[in-house]
Every structure is written in structure tokens, then in C-alpha cells.
Amino acid sequence: MEDCIFCKIVKGDIPCSKVYEDENVLSFLDISPANKGHTLVIPKKHYEKFNEMPEDEASTLMSAANKVSKAVEKAIEPEGYSILINNGKAAGQEVGHVHLHIMPKYEKDDFKLLWTHSNYEEGEMGKVLEKIKTFL
Ligand code: AMP
Predict the structure, then answer these.
(1) Residue 121 belongs to what domain range?
(2) Could you tell me the CATH number of the domain that includes residue 57?
(3) How far is it, in rounded angstroms, from Cα 41 to Cα 65?
(4) How many domains does the chain have?
(5) In this structure, which residue's CA is closest to atom 17 in ligand 1?
(6) For 71-117, what is each residue's pLDDT tens digit?
(7) Residue 15: CB within 6 Å of ligand 1?
(8) 86 lines ligand 1 (CB under 6 A)
(9) Hey, which residues does 25 pair with through a beta bridge?
(10) For the chain, which terminal residue's Cβ has fewer other Cβ atoms within 10 angstroms, N or C?
């Protein structure tokens, strides 16, 4: 996609600190990391959101992320790490090309990936469950 910064990285028009590459996937260091070793894994083909990807291509992305996470874990030895894909502006997605974050984490981090817990009204959970299952 023409205006997509990650497509430009895939094409080689913009440089990146390449961690891993194969036919379908590219992985590189995040330029503005949450912590050192923060790595992105992207499909070479442009999709905006994870759910837009065909299942086999999503599996390929996840498989590469698994491989890269092992290398990041060994190299950086963080206390923990998070794997995250932001989808849509409301979820914090800034770059409109699917990218999976591998984020080294430490107990004393300034940033925490935490959320407040909500709840279901009586009978609502079952309705939500059935609705999701309708689309599987
Ligand atoms: P998100 O908020 O999930 O869309 O995350 C986008 C991420 O892409 C941010 O963590 C940015 O630091 C990172 N980013 C943006 N441009 C580049 C680039 N040229 N090279 C590497 N990482 C980038």
C-alpha cells in the first residue's frame, strides 16, 4: 500500500533494524521502544487489522513471532515480555499495517499493560458468547 510506512520498510524504501525475514514475514526493532529489544513482527502483505488476515497467513505470522520471541528472550533476558497487536485507533493502533509487538517487561516498568475489570449483567455473558460463536 502506497502510503503505508511498514509497506515502505518491506519494499526497502525505508531502512529498518532487521531481526528476521522470510518469504511472508519481516521483523525489526521498534524505533521508539517501550524497552530495549522491543521488536515488531509484520506480514509483508498489507492488512490493516489482524482479523482481516486469512487464517493461514495469521498462523504464519504467529509462527514467526514465536521464533523471534525465543531470540528476544534469550538475547535480552527480560523479567517478562508481552505480545500485543493493537487493532484500530481505540486500541492504540498508530500504524495501519498489522504488527505484533514483542515487548520486554520488568517489574519496575513505568508502563503496565493493565486494565480495569468490567462485568456482565445477568444473562448477558451467554448472549455475548452465542453471538461470537455465530461467526465461527
Ligand atoms: P501501534 O501503536 O501498535 O500502531 O505501534 C506502532 C509502533 O511502530 C510504535 O511502537 C512505533 O514506535 C513503531 N514504529 C513506527 N515507525 C517505525 C519505523 N520506521 N521503524 C520501526 N518502528 C516504527
Answers:
(1) 5-133
(2) 3.30.428.10
(3) 6
(4) 1
(5) 31
(6) 999 999 999 999 999 999 999 999 999 999 999 999 998 878 888 89
(7) no
(8) yes
(9) 43
(10) C
